[in-house]
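Quick log. Single chain, no ligands specified.
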Amino acid sequence: MATQPSPGSPIRFEDFELDVRSGELRRRGELLKLQPQPSKILTLLASRRGEVVSRNDIAREVWGSETFVDFERGLNFAISQIRTVLGDDAEQPRFIETVPKRGYRFIAPLKEQSPDATARVPTRRPVKLPLAIGAVIVALIAAVAFFAFRGKPQAAPRPIVLAVLPFDDLSGEPQPFLVSGLTEEMIARVTQISPEHVKVIARTSAMQYERTKKNAREIGQELGADYVLENSIRHENGHIRITSQLVRTADQTHLWAENYDRDMRELLPLEGDVTASIAEQVQRELLPSVAITLPGSGRPVSPEAHELYLKGRYYFNARTPADLRQSVTYFQQAILKQPDYAAAYAALADADNLIAFYGFDPTMNSVGQAKVAALKALQLDDSMSAAHAALAYTEFMWQEDWASADKEFRRALQLDDNDVPAHHWYALYLAANGRMDQSVQQMRYALKLDPLSATTHLGMAYVYYFARDYQQAAQQAAEALQLNASSMAAHAVLGWVFTEQKRFPDAIQNLQTAIQLSGGVQVYQCGLARAYALSGNAVKAREVLAKAETMQEQQLGTGTSLASVYVALGDSESALHWLEQTAPGDIQANWLRVDPAFDALRQFQRFAAVQRRIGVKTSQP
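-> predicted structure:
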């Protein structure tokens, strides 16, 4: 084993290889996502293996003379990112050891440099993106594919990673919904060309670069992208001009640029014909050995309905209670304009599902509405992945029929393996069933497709929490908060994790924040009461519990959440009572098999009986 790497040579340890020149980290040839500063820190530590590298040295070598107000927070976050990527544990480190009050030390053994290591060309891992706007977008995609693969006809093309950057609206009256919608649909259309060969960064991560001043190389390093597609748009008096250029991130070479002028009302009708011609071009020029089959253009969509749909998607992605309700209104209006608009029905199902999930609809009527909308979408277009995923979500989350949920999740991913929400929701389903390894695998794949999504990091935190990996759960929740500081659910997960780690002051603080951000959602109230109970403050626990029980009487909460507090207070009888009374249709009951809050009840037959009812379809009277 080598103790120190040769200058400039790749650093190899366990299954990892770190290119000190580019900062790229790979595991068994697969490129891993690591942002520039964490990459520099890892390179610095690994190149000085066995030495304690002080925080001052790291600041000087990585940040240099840059003004950085909150260096400590930035360094801690960077170390957390490195540990997450390496699968390291701060308490029992294999790679990065914290030396209190001094700095950090890289402790993993290094491997000898093989003679041909620098000549190897590791393969890239794919990534991909969302839905459809018209002839303009499809024409851009042809150019993207052409320049991405051109010049390599003799070899089977390797998958490339493409980031479609948000459109820059240069119009006199910018329309944010159009920027968001065009970006989302460009992503989806690129995805359809050849999913095995072109992978696209998902919308949530791409939108992080709206109005960015970062150059193509920086964006490529942060997203692991080979190419970025930069776009601008001008629209006036019913006409639209799109300017796009394709840039190779490694050297920032501009490979191609083009302008497109169209009448906005002519975009969608042209989509099917242009898509077909692009598929033919891609196969002939770029992928001669690959059979490309693109989905049909589907039913024609009126421009008015499509605009309403784009507005709905814009508000849906904001995820606040008011925005979700506004998205429902726009999706419903789109459906009124065009009753056979399958995508609008699928989006409506997603919005209703989230309204119910976040507790924004005390009546829970949105659950039934979500299922009706998903079924209608599938009736109109059974090949729509999003509709299958929405139906699977309703069958799983509301305990309708878990066997059907599994079938629908699998069908959704068969149709579109790069559907991030489908991977996310399926991971939660697998976790609820105790299939933790598969659940983690699904969420890791979702993170590769959407590395800068707070929601996806939060899903990973949920999964690690149920897997009892509290260190990883805390890291993922912290990353979610870095991306979205107002995430109520991320604060809640941190509160639950800190409760299990007996860090009660931290748990109480985070749960109080979750309550404040959510407007007092009952499940977070119960989490706070549970933290108080386990910390020994039974008086405060019962005070919060009383308020939560009042919400339950008003049908604003869940009995399962109340039961978790009674378990913490040592009252198993009351806990079992609430579970038996409210488990059917209670979203929190989905996690009974894996939630550590209920470990004390697993010895009771009554608890086992409640578990058996979860997710089992009951016959209708």
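Residues 66-70, 115-133, 151-157, 269-279 have pLDDT under 50 and may be disordered.
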